[in-house]
User: Fold this.
Amino acid sequence: MALLEAGDVDTRMADGVLTVAAGMGSDFEAGQVLDALAERMPNDVALIERYRAEARRLGDHKRGQAGKALDRFFAD
Assistant:
């Protein structure tokens, strides 16, 4: 979380954050990381797909929140 709050997040950093999130056993903690990442990650198709794949392992509520966090990339 500190890395995400420290400044710009490029594709490489976002990929690393997703790797860390994949190792988290708690849906709550992983969901918090994904939400924070979605606010700052670059609009990169491959990265968004990886984010979605990671979000799919979460429970329904956290998965929904993570998906909604990506809405900024698809605003009308």
Q: What stands out?
A: DSSP finds five helices and no strands in the chain. Residues 2 and 42 are 18 Å apart (CA to CA).
